[in-house]
Amino acid sequence: MQKPYVIDEMISAKSIAARLEELCREIHDEFQGTDKLVVVGLLRGSFVFIADLVRELDLPIEVDFLEASSYGDGMESSREVRILKDLRGAIEGRDVLVVEDIVDTGHTLHHVTGLLKSREPARLKTIALLDKPSRREVDMKADWTGFEIPDEFVVGYGIDFAQRNRNLPYIGKVRFT
Ligand code: PRP
């Protein structure tokens, strides 16, 4: 049985949108001129972030998805990253932007970037909406980060708690009652 909890707003939808605009300006500068950018969303957590991100990018892009999982329905990372769904397209010689919702222990992004680098893209960059540096277990940092947050259990804007609350339009903090 799930313990009862409430969700306190931590980062508003408005703050996320404002930060996204800033990040997209930087991404735009990095990738301007390319006609071979593939934006890769890591499922499932990044589905809201990538949807907003690509609509803010004025670049010719393709979108692809990769599903990695290390948490299942639990709150602790298993540290064993499984690829549940691979990319549809080849990325050799392409520019790639990997979109992640949150970097926690870092195992997921570390594993995924290692895998994608082995496919020899021309350029591989990463963006994470949230970063919890205090939880890091491997040396990993996204090239762009939306917000650094403390070690709180967060949900919303794509991020789940036992598969719930992904549809909240803001980032909230879980508080058990
Ligand atoms: C969550 C989250 C990140 C990853 C971050 O994914 O979406 O991908 O964990 O944690 P890490 O830095 O400790 O590896 P999860 O495995 O829960 O799958 P989901 O995206 O389907 O929710």
From TrEMBL:
Gene3D superfamilies: 3.40.50.2020
GN (gene name): hpt
Keyword Cell division: no
UniProt cross-references to CDD domains, sorted A to Z: PRTases_typeI
Necessary cofactors: Mg(2+)
UniProt name for this protein: Hypoxanthine phosphoribosyltransferase
Transmembrane segments: none
UniProt family annotation: Belongs to the purine/pyrimidine phosphoribosyltransferase family.
One GO BP: GMP salvage
EC numbers for this chain: 2.4.2.8
Catalytic function, reaction form: GMP + diphosphate = guanine + 5-phospho-alpha-D-ribose 1-diphosphate; IMP + diphosphate = hypoxanthine + 5-phospho-alpha-D-ribose 1-diphosphate
Source organism per UniProt: Sulfitobacter aestuariivivens
UniProt-listed InterPro entries: HGPRT, Hxn_phspho_trans, PRTase-like, PRTase_dom
GO molecular function: guanine phosphoribosyltransferase activity; hypoxanthine phosphoribosyltransferase activity; magnesium ion binding; nucleotide binding
Keywords per UniProt: Cytoplasm, Glycosyltransferase, Magnesium, Metal-binding, Nucleotide-binding, Purine salvage, Transferase
Domain annotation Phosphoribosyltransferase: ranges: 14-161
